[in-house]
Specification:
Cofactor: [4Fe-4S] cluster; [2Fe-2S] cluster
InterPro entries: Aldolase_TIM, BATS_dom, Elp3/MiaA/NifB-like_rSAM, FeFe-hyd_HydE_rSAM, HydE/PylB-like, rSAM, rSAM_sf
GO molecular function: 4 iron, 4 sulfur cluster binding; metal ion binding; transferase activity
CATH architecture: Alpha-Beta Barrel
Number of domains: 1
CATH superfamily: Aldolase class I
Keywords: 4Fe-4S, Iron, Iron-sulfur, Metal-binding, S-adenosyl-L-methionine
Strand content: 5-15%
Protein name: Iron-only hydrogenase maturation protein HydE
CATH class: Alpha Beta
Number of helices: 14
Structural class: alpha/beta
Number of strands: 8
């Protein structure tokens, strides 16, 4: 093990705040002993903060319309090959009721940035879903007005997921035409002020990304003090400008997840669907190096393959029963158990907060 790597790992094990240089060093863990020690420490920190529970968060992808033209996403407005849909509210509610029967602690209402929905309509959707079971609701519908966020919170939304994707402002602007990292961060700050449990996150392996950028991603997540961080590999879609780019690297994704666990010990980290798409054992690997959440796709079967952010998305060809059974089995195989709670943040300000 290299001396600077051993020193950074020792600092992390002792709970000492890591510098940017430490983070860069750990992100460059070499195959063999360095990777093994990094993953073992991340797994230990996860166990110390969250025990052996795995939180299931059922995703309902209720619309694949999007006003944005992001270069990496199959939902981009310029994609004319995609079949668009919006799930009727009754079907969304029925899916939520089914999730409640399965014992899910969280429902994630996710969509492209679809201007069809007003803030009031999203609030009504949240209210109806909250009435369907005793679970937290996470909303993931992109950049909206502060008023819309306030309406969603008043309707009972508990959490909001808004991934920053990359902490490099120039790369962000290049990959997301017409948008800026500064505006993204402003909204993440609004969400914090309004009282949401806040989620963000980034992709690993974006063209033009460096290990320094990945370190800045982790430091931004720390600065934002997020309650959840979704970290997954970039997977190119053949109907986007990045179609010919390479996929994100599996090991680099796992190393980024592990370092994020060391820097963010009390943050929920999912074993993402994207990592399960990259490798059939990807989610198991992620659970072994810091992850404590899985987000199964509960969308009705007829819509699943139309929500193609990237191709061959894990779970897109299964129905909800198969997805749930597969995830339950996976969790047992790694010696963990599924949480029966809502999976709120363990941070003091979110403890014992009454469920709405």
């Amino acid at each position: 093990m290299r001396e600077d790597f051993a020193r950074a790992l020792t600092r992390a094990a002792g709970g000492i705040e890591l510098t940017r240089e430490d983070i860069i060093t750990l992100l460059q863990a070499l195959p063999g002993e360095e990777e093994t020690k990094l993953f073992e420490l991340a797994d230990r920190v996860r166990q110390e903060n969250f025990g052996d529970e795995v939180h299931l968060r059922g995703i309902i992808e209720f619309s694949n319309y999007c006003r944005n033209d992001c270069h990496y996403c199959g939902l981009r407005r310029s994609n004319k090959e995609i079949q668009r849909y919006r799930i009727p509210l009754e079907e969304i509610v029925d899916t939520a009721k089914y999730a409640a029967e399965l014992g899910y602690g969280t429902i994630v209402l996710q969509a492209g940035e679809d201007p069809y929905y007003s803030g009031e309509e999203l609030a009504e959707m949240i209210r109806k879903v909250k009435e369907s079971g005793n679970f937290a609701v996470t909303v993931c519908v992109g950049e909206r007005s502060r008023k819309d966020y306030e309406l969603m919170k008043e309707a009972g939304a508990d959490r909001y997921l808004l991934k920053h994707e990359t902490a490099d402002p120039a790369l962000f602007a290049k990959l997301r035409p017409g948008t800026s990292l500064a505006e993204r961060i402003k909204r993440l700050q609004w969400l914090r002020e309004i009282g949401f449990q806040v989620g963000s996150g980034n992709m690993v392996g974006l063209p033009g990304q460096t290990v320094e950028t990945l370190a800045d991603d982790i430091l931004l997540l720390k600065e934002l003090d997020v309650e959840m961080a979704g970290i997954g590999p970039f997977i190119p879609h053949d109907q986007t400008p990045l179609r010919d780019c390479s996929k994100g690297d599996l090991k680099q994704t796992l190393k980024t997840l592990a370092v994020a666990r060391l820097v963010l010990p009390q943050t929920h980290l999912p074993a993402t669907t994207a990592i399960g798409t990259l490798h059939p054992e990807g989610r198991k690997m992620a659970l072994a190096c810091g992850a404590n959440v899985i987000m199964p796709n509960l969308s009705p079967a007829g819509y699943r393959q139309m929500y193609q952010i990237y191709p061959e998305k894990a779970g897109s060809k299964e129905n909800a029963d198969e997805s749930h059974e597969k995830i339950t089995s996976l969790v047992k195989e790694v010696g963990r158990h599924i949480s029966k709670g809502r999976g709120d943040s363990p941070k003091e300000q979110f403890k014992n907060r009454p469920a709405r």
